[in-house]
Design brief:
By secondary structure, this protein is of the alpha+beta class. The chain is built from 7 helices and 16 strands.
């Protein structure tokens, strides 16, 4: 066993359950925490115990449906009513009500999960597009990393900023182009408010780290999800942290643990992403 040092080590401790302070936050808890922090949330239309209990007839022409206990995009549908069917903006498929229920049920599988139906948020990028998703990595020191997702493309477009919305280069963090493509950095008009909302949520939850996922509209910021242990950089999925960034973010988290008098957790082995360190180290030698 070894003491965690880097950000992805903390994710490993979360996965291995060696961190006594690990938590999980489902979508219902997200709404409670964000509301307590004074943040705006999408309007909640329905909360059903199962996909079969969603009342499609009494929903507006555009809405988002998602399981409360799943993460990332799993089981999420962004739906626009087209006569007797629904256009899903993620898959760009026309689905019947029966097909939406079946796909949602399949995504949930044997897990226990309610189903939440929320307002479709219109972002700065247009009325019939999925709004850009800004993931703000927030510590006691403030927002230290921002990841911008454009989910209107296939595959997703991703780009990165520091905590002042300044774009980061590929020597710091880069897209894994096996699964995504580099995007065009777009600083939203509500950039300052995004930072303020993320920090207010982090103070409300009082955690050394939280990823606050937000959407920027033309006039406001809306909180989508809260993630205490994002798996992306750990699994070497859509993007990769350089060793420098991994150490830096890990340092902020260690500071937060020490500030609270928490033990720094221990882990066995190394994150899967660690094998990619050589990609950044070889760049530095050139």
């Amino acid at each position: 066993m070894r003491v965690v040092e880097r950000f992805t080590d903390f994710i490993q401790a979360h996965i291995e359950k060696t961190d006594s302070h690990r938590i999980s936050i489902d979508k219902e808890e997200t709404r409670r925490i964000a509301a307590a922090a004074g943040a705006r949330l999408p309007q909640l239309y329905q909360l059903a115990r199962s996909p079969n209990e969603v009342d499609f007839a009494n929903l507006p022409n555009a809405f988002v449906i998602k399981p409360t206990h799943l993460c990332s995009k799993k089981g999420v549908f962004v739906l626009f009513r087209v006569r007797d069917r629904f256009l899903d903006l993620f898959s760009m498929k026309l689905l019947s009500e029966t097909e939406v229920i079946a796909e949602l049920t399949r995504a949930i599988g044997t897990q226990l999960s309610s189903v939440m139906v929320e307002e479709f948020v219109t972002g700065e990028n247009g009325q019939v597009e999925i709004p850009y998703d800004y993931k703000l990595y927030t510590f006691d020191s403030g927002v230290e990393l921002i990841i911008q997702f454009n989910r209107n493309t296939a595959p997703d477009e991703i780009c990165f900023f520091n905590g002042q919305f300044e774009p980061l280069g590929t020597d710091i963090v880069r897209v894994n182009e096996n699964y995504a493509i580099p995007g065009r950095p777009i600083v939203p008009k509500q950039a300052e408010q995004l930072l303020m909302v993320a920090q207010s949520v982090q103070k409300e939850i009082d955690r050394p780290f939280i990823s606050v996922d937000c959407y920027a509209t033309a006039a406001d910021v809306i909180v989508g999800e809260l993630t205490p242990g994002p798996g992306g950089p750990y699994y070497d999925g859509l993007f990769r942290f350089s060793p420098t960034l991994d150490w830096q973010l890990g340092g902020y988290q260690i500071d937060g643990y020490r500030k609270r008098g928490w033990d720094i957790p221990m882990v066995a082995g190394f994150p899967p992403s660690r094998i990619r360190d050589s990609l950044f180290l070889s760049d530095q030698k050139q």
